[in-house]
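Q: I have 257 residues here and want to know how they pack in 3D. Can you give me a structure?
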Amino acid sequence: MTVKQVANVLDLLEFFAARGKPASLAEIAQHFGWPRSSAFNLLSTLVERGYLYEPKRRGGYYPTPRWLALAREISAAEPLPDEVPTLLRELAKTTGETVWIASASGQHAVLLEVIQSEHAVRYTAEVGKRVPLHATATGQAIISQMPETQQASVLRKAVFERYSEGTPMSIDAVEQSIRRSLARGWFESASAFSHDLGGVSVPLVLDGRVFSLTVAGPLFRVRERMEEIAGALQSAVKRHLGADYFTKNVPNLATLP
């Protein structure tokens, strides 16, 4: 269920991020199709709270650095491990595809840090993007490290919607996929959530938190490279987190040579 006022604030932030310059009340109201009075009330509230300002008199509104300060404080309270950015950069360079680290949020995995591929045709993902836990390699890798009771709860609540031709459509199908993936040493999806897109993931357990590390791209480029990409994922993790990382932290995942 979407709360309209909250959605409007988030839409406004994304608008400024894309625009990159101040906007007047009239421009904002016209862009979103909001009544002028509603737009004025929203902007005035954000100005009063210190989240918007007018860089020049009557020059339009723009976000203040307060958003950034808050984001930094929030991130500092629950930071990603220091090794993660370097690990992602290495994988992006090695594979040439889009890479990310994700964690569970309800019935979804949310992408916490992303590096986009430099290919013109690529998997486009952004920080904050959510994908279903049960229907993706990213999500299944996370589920695989949950306690059995939590796994059962997640799968019982899953909505088995057909996203694409490769979407698993039952609890049994997801459980079988997880067992195969653990025995193989990596998780894969091929047109499971997004048509003609594929991904390879491995689970990570860092400081007691469960994540998944994923490399994804167009199927025409990654389908024949999935095993190679899986090897790159595990090798990179071992280099940055320790040669015995998987044995100590993810013992139910097969270790690739």
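Q: Anything worth noting?
A: The chain has a mean pLDDT of 92. Residues 176 and 199 are 18 Å apart (CA to CA).
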